[in-house]
Amino acid sequence: MPAISIDTFFACSLMVLLVLSAMAATTKIIYSSINGTFDVEAAKRFREIAEYMLLNPGEPSNWGQDGQKVPEAFGLAEAYAENPYTLDVDKVSRLNSENLYALSYAQIFTSLKISDTSFRLEIKPAFDIRINLTGIFGGADQTTYEFEVLTGKSGADTSAMLKYYVVAENFLEKSNLNGPALLVVFAKSSYNSKIVSFNVYSFAHNSPEPRQKGTFLRLSPLNYNLTASLNHPETVLSKAYALTFNYSSVLTQTANGNQSATFSIPKLLDSSPTVLVVTGWNSTEFFAEWTAYPQIPLQIGASLTDSPNLSNVFAYTYLVTIGSAIYQCTVWLGGPRQ
To answer: Please, are residues 298 and 329 in contact by the beta-carbon 8 Å criterion?
Structure first.
């Protein structure tokens, strides 16, 4: 039986309640210099570089889909995109160091072909979700977990609609459920249905605290396939799921190697990030590992704000589209002292 509950409770063993605080504000987008005196010419040049990274697909234009391919020219745009600032889901995912096929900063720096400019890039949901476990209430035949979910941006609250999923051990065949569980929360902006954020909260039920994310598996989505690399030889995989704001799907396993397995990721028609969850057992220990597709949030690049060798450092923040959902992308660029 599936180990997933969608907008429902864990029957007779575990219950989850969500409390959404009152929200009323829209997202702020910041566009500013962050270091030193304002240099108009440097700001213009760096802005052109940032926009080049986001408006051009690079060479070859499909470099993101092949995990063995390093771009000759760097660009994150989706090839043949109808609208500007539409990024390729695989190019973005290959910026995340957790991905098996991730590019290094050195590879990106070389393919960007601008030797006098350092950069840092961050892509994340356009607003934040905070999940707080506020109460645990025990009963004769069930335990209730109460969570508070807060949505906001830059200290301001954001109005949003919620959807949540709970992933845990297959409890229907057991009289007593115990082990780690995942609470996956999606929040859709009340002002723009294409702005959807997410967060995942791991908690324990009648067991020790859950292990750190990535303890058992390295999850690498690419070209609508999910590679699950096993970190321990005794690991056995159970189920894999794709979750979005409106849809959920059990993933089909397409390959099985000695220390890895591959699952097909469905192309769900939803303006939402996709959270991918893989469950299994490491000897007698149940686990639930997760990642997102596109594989965000992510940061890659140099630490520009702490560098004594840079005099001009600027940050440019954009709303970008990946799939059909909107995210926030910030590009920091800096040049050497003159």
So the answer is: no
66 forms bridges with which residues in the sheet?
none
Element (H, E) at 49: helix 40-55
The encoded tokens of residue 113 equal 């072909």
Q: What burial letters (b/e) apply to 267-290, b meaning 16+ CB within 10 Å?
A: ebebbbbbbbbbbbbbeebbbbbb
125 touches 296 (CB < 8 A): yes
Q: Would residue 48 be called left, alpha or beta, if left means φ above 0 and alpha means ψ between -120 and 50 degrees?
A: alpha
| CB neighbours of residue 197 within 10 Å | 27
State both tokens at 221. 């989505």
Q: How much helix, strand and coil, in percent to the nearest 5, is found in the chain?
A: 10, 50, 40
Tokens matching residue 189: 């902006």
Spatial CB neighbours of 82, under 8 Å, sequence gap ≥ 6: none
State how far the Cα of 220 lies from the Cα of 278, in Å rounded to an integer.
12
Cα 35 from Cα 32, distance rounded (Å): 9
Task: Write the pLDDT tens digit of every residue in 179-229.
Answer: 788 999 999 999 999 999 999 999 887 666 778 999 999 999 999 999 999
| pLDDT tens per residue across span 30-53 | 333 344 456 788 888 999 999 999
Give the CA radius of gyration of the chain.
21
**Cβ(127)–Cβ(195) below 8 Å:** yes
Would you put residue 191 in left (φ > 0), alpha (ψ -120 to 50) or beta? alpha
Q: Which of 272, 267, 131 is nearest to 197 (CA)?
A: 272
